[in-house]
Amino acid sequence: MARITQTIDTGKSIVEMRTFIDTKALGRPELALLLDTHRWEGNILYASGKLGHGTLTLEDKRVIVDIELTLFGSAAKGRIEKELQKLLGQ
Question: Three-state SS string across the chain, please?
Fold first, then answer.
């Protein structure tokens, strides 16, 4: 199995990024298989889905991604990384 570990610069505060994730990212169909089930604990979003499970940790002006991919998710690792970078790095 593969793992995604990325630090994505966002230019946004923790509050701005959490609001963005809650209102725009979690409902996106291209991330539904990764963020199907999720919960916040402080500034950490715990998520799981058919493609994998892991965390998005919010820090000031960046998001730290740590996701363990399933076998199915491993096949799409590059695409998932690009989508996360594109979406969260706005």
Answer: CCEEEEEEECCCCHHHHHHHHHHHHCCCHHHCCCCCEEEEECCEEEEEECCEEEEEEEECCEEEEEEEECHHHHHCHHHHHHHHHHHHCC
Q: What is the pLDDT of residues 29-69, one digit of tens each?
A: 878 888 889 999 999 999 999 999 999 999 999 999 999 99
Residue pair 2/66 in contact (Cβ under 8 Å)? The answer is: no
Q: Please report, for the chain, the start and end positions of each structural domain, with discontinuous segments joined by +.
A: 3-88
Which residue, 33, 85, 46, is CA-closest to 63?
85
How far, in Å, CA of 88 to CA of 84, rounded? Answer: 6
Q: How far is CA 71 from the centre of its chain?
A: 18
Using left for φ > 0, alpha for ψ between -120 and 50, and beta otherwise, residue 42 falls in left
Q: pLDDT-based confidence at 84, cuts 50/70/90?
A: very high
